[in-house]
Amino acid sequence: MKLLLLAGTCEARTLAERLTGDAHFDVIASLAGATRDPAPLPVATRIGGFGGNAEQERWLSHNAIEAVIDATHPFAAQISARTQALCAKLGLPYLQLLRPGWSEAPQDRWTWVTDAQAAADALPEGATAFLATGRQTLSAFAQRIDCTLYLRQIDPPTQPFPLPRGDYVIATPPFSLKDETNLFKSLGIDVLVVKDAGGRAGSKLAAARALGLAVIVIARPPQPPGDKATSVDEALAWLERHA
Ligand code: NAP
């Protein structure tokens, strides 16, 4: 079976590893190209956007794709919605591998918001905040010049930090609880801002809990309809049923 694996998460990587050498599946992974120098995947990989809806439809047909597993990030709403709709149109089995979201413990001080702008609005006056929300969200915080903002990203920036107070923090995951705790202490962080990404990147939340920091959590966007798996094992079981 010829399978398109929409990648960009550690679950996609694990799934690619588990499918390597399985003669039943001919896997092509697809990365958006958002990270400059992504670690190679152990399957054939294309990199870059498809170029829109019609181009992606053409690509699926041209490459004789027979099923799609969408293991993109829970906040990659455009590619997921579009791919689900295209698969429905073309009659292709589509599965979204969507890891469970995070939930707060009784001692946590979390505030849930709907998007990055609402997160910026929710920052207390003069806060020192750590933004683990991706570089695309930084513009939403542009008005909060009363705050000191640290934005973590993987790639070194090509431009200076655009806000008067704060900086980029360049680092590649995974991060341990000790790493996160030391980082937040050294920067004097009092608020952590995260997306409800779910999965293993929970060390920052554990560090915030240990330090008693307030956390602003951006809720997930709506997900497309269709089959869902919450783990790589569930995705493999779905594949067995559709092979
Ligand atoms: P998005 O808003 O859903 O998609 C934007 C555009 O990026 C799509 O229209 C498509 O371009 C292209 N694209 C996205 N994922 C692709 C893939 N796997 N293969 C080929 N093209 C893809 O996505 P996003 O939020 O910008 O995220 C981009 C990638 O980064 C995703 O693969 C996601 O898994 C990963 N990521 C996102 C986040 C996040 O917080 N959003 C965090 C970590 C990783 P065309 O229209 O040109 O086809």
Descriptive notes:
Helices cover 30% and strands 23% of the residues. It contains 7 helices and 12 strands. The chain has helices spanning 10-19, 53-62, 77-90, 116-122, 177-187, 203-211, 232-242; strands spanning 2-6, 26-31, 44-47, 67-70, 94-97, 109-113, 128-132, 148-153, 166-170, 191-195, 214-218, 227-229. Strands 3-2-1-4-5-12 form a 6-stranded parallel β-sheet, sandwiched between helices. The termini are close together. The model has no long low-confidence stretch (mean pLDDT 96). The site of NADP nicotinamide-adenine-dinucleotide phosphate has 22 residues, from strand 2 and helix 3.
Mind describing the biggest β-sheet? 6 strands, parallel
Strands in their spatial order, largest beta sheet? 3-2-1-4-5-12
Hetero groups? NADP nicotinamide-adenine-dinucleotide phosphate
Strand segment tally: 12
Helical run tally: 7
Beta-strand residue fraction: 15-25%
Task: Summarize the helix and strand pattern as letters.
Answer: EHEEHEHEEHEEEHEHEEH
Unreliable spans are none
Outline, from the CA principal axes? elongated
Q: Helicity level, as a percent range? A: 25-40%
The N- to C-terminal Cα distance equals 6 Å
Query: Which structural class best describes the helix and strand composition?
Result: alpha/beta
- CA radius of gyration: 19 Å
Mean pLDDT: 96
